[in-house]
Amino acid sequence: MRWLIGCAAAVVLVGAVTACGGEATPPVADEDEHHHHGDGTVAEGSGEFDIGLGGPVSLSGDFDAISYEVTYAVTGVTVVETDDAGEPAAENDVLLVAEVEITGFRGDHEAGPGNTDFVFSLLDAEGREYPRSDQVVAPELVGTVEADQTLTGRVVFDVPESAAESGSVRLAAEANGSDLLIDWEY
């Protein structure tokens, strides 16, 4: 996906972080434009942020001249033996399933593997990264989130058994040179 105008993002837990992309001086969303869904302080910039399961992440911006604002939250992580087709992990030992909730507040936002600007992966305790698996455990996190809607679904990772013990579910959001990495630790 191509972003036509900048992006603003906020990580909301104890604090909030906003990242904006665009021209040499990135636009900053003010309180009238971007409503932070939670309490905290706003800091500008890009970077990597570690939060706990359930911590909401508010993302807003413009895509194809349509403004959107959504909140992502990874609410849980579980291990399953097989996918919906009855198949075990294709490459490693186990299937790790992340429960994700996306709530729309303004505009619409595409969720799922087709949105290459918002990509999920899994980091194990040693920092090794595993991509989202093609295997499915329903309901899969895919669809369009509109204002006043909540989409819940699952993202599956094919990982070694050791990765099921501890790690992070990562959301990488990229737009106009701004990189935001959000890690929900489990």
TrEMBL record:
Keywords: Signal
InterPro entries: Immunoprotect_excell_Ig-like (IPR029050)
Source organism, top-level taxon: Bacteria
Position of the signal peptide: 1-19
Annotated region (Disordered), positions in chain: 25-47
Entry-linked PROSITE patterns: PROKAR_LIPOPROTEIN
Protein name: DUF4352 domain-containing protein
Protein species of origin: Stackebrandtia albiflava
